[in-house]
Amino acid sequence: MLPKASGSAVLQSVVVPIEQPGPGSIETRVSKWHTKWLAVLSILTICQACSLSDHPVVESKLGKPSSLEALEKVIDVPGPIEVETVNSADWTVPLSGLVDLKNAAAQAAHMLDRPEPIHVFVHIVRHPQFGTYMVDTGVSEQLLADPGSHGISWLVRKVMPLDQMHIREGTAEVVARIPAGIQGVFFTHLHVDHISGMPDIAGNVPLYVGHSESTATSFQNLFVRGTTNKLLDGKAELQEWPFRWNDDHKGIVIGEVVDIFGDGSAFAISAPGHTPGSTAYLFRTSKGPVLLTGDTSHTRWGWEHSVEPGSYTADQPTNLKSLLLLKNLASRHPDMEVRLGHQM
Fold first, then answer.
1. Mean pLDDT of the chain
2. Residue 53's domain spans which residues?
């Protein structure tokens, strides 16, 4: 309490010194802890809003909306397209990434994690009128020889065992045997193993991808965003297929269809789950329909037993719905040839 002034005396101020906490005091330690956690929370908040890439995105100039009903009316009629599937590289990765080992069917089969041999494919799609396209890109020998210079960070290399990848036919070789050039690349999705051929793709080649594939946000994107940006740097903008968006589920509608050339010969089918914009492709060939599932199903066992992929997949419940949609489509058309994401 301050002393009272009497008469005409002047009230003198009293200064009470405030003791500052020392560097080892409880108050200082609590303050530092609080600051650190605020920083961590801030980083996590930013990461939640991290997209896969900031590469330019526009709506596709190619294709028109269609439907599964319209697709199924024509796909059994022989068509004009040729589809050549090239094994660009052999690879070995953990089975637990490829197959959900917690799925009841996998547990009933007593499946355990193990190194699993797979392939990295690139598909060559030839249309007599519209030219030659690729589905995904295979693997560039440049990238495998010097991963760091192509944006493959040490962390990505830890997750992607590139030392277990062996080139069979590099992307440059594939491109060289397309004399008229590539008219575009249709991506099933933008995981690194599906864009690893981009160093050999010219910068003016159009690129097509599922809606929200590069723009949807997640924490995991933090670790691959730099690599994805580097591999897309200097390339054409990403053109998104016009799949409808589901506001309730904050994702694209499963089973949306785009008639790619407008002639009923080639279709893009939305199959989200593995990634937000995962896309399957169906082509009418002279020998019957060919379905490219992308990584909606990595393995032959997963496809045959209706088991979704494992840890490599972002949203397993949605992936399973997409897998079942494609399986049901194939079952209604027994002449359909199904080519999976990473196994024959």
1. 90
2. 26-339
In a domain, 245, yes or no: yes
> Is residue 129 classed as helix, strand or coil in its secondary structure?
coil
The dihedral region occupied by 149, where left means phi > 0, alpha psi between -120 and 50, and beta the remainder, is alpha
- Residues 146-194 have pLDDT tens digits of 999 999 988 898 888 999 999 999 999 999 999 999 999 999 999 999 9
Does residue 4 lie within any of the structural domains? no
Residue 262 in tokens: 């407008």
Other Cβ atoms less than 10 A from the Cβ of 226: the count is 15
Distance of CA 90 to the CA centre of its chain: 20
DSSP 3-state of 309? coil
Q: Residue 294: which of 311, 284, 312 has the closest Cα?
A: 312
> Residue 41 is part of a domain; what is its CATH number?
3.60.15.10
List 198's β-bridge partners, or say none. Answer: none
How many domains does one find in the chain? 1
Which residues, at least 6 apart from 247, have a Cβ–Cβ distance to it below 8 Å? none
Whether 33 shows a pLDDT value over 90: the answer reads no
Q: Read off the pLDDT band of 34 (50, 70, 90).
A: low
pTM given for the model: 0.87
pLDDT at 12 exceeding the cut of 80: no
| Residue in this structure with the two tokens 């080649």, named with its chain if needed | 205
Q: If residue 48 lies in a helix (H) or strand (E), which one and from where to where?
A: helix 26-48
Residue 152: phi, psi to the nearest 5? Answer: -80, 100
CA dist 262 → 65, 232, 293 (Å): 9, 28, 21
What's the CA gap between 65 and 280, in Å, rounded?
15
**Looking at the domain assignment, is residue 257 inside a domain?**
yes
Q: Is 114 helix (H, G, I), strand (E, B) or coil?
A: coil
Which DSSP state fits 168? S
Rounded-to-integer distance, Cα 260 and Cα 214, Å: 20
Q: What is the pLDDT of residue 158?
A: 83
Inside any domain, residue 120: yes
Q: Are 250 and 243 in contact (CB under 8 A)?
A: no
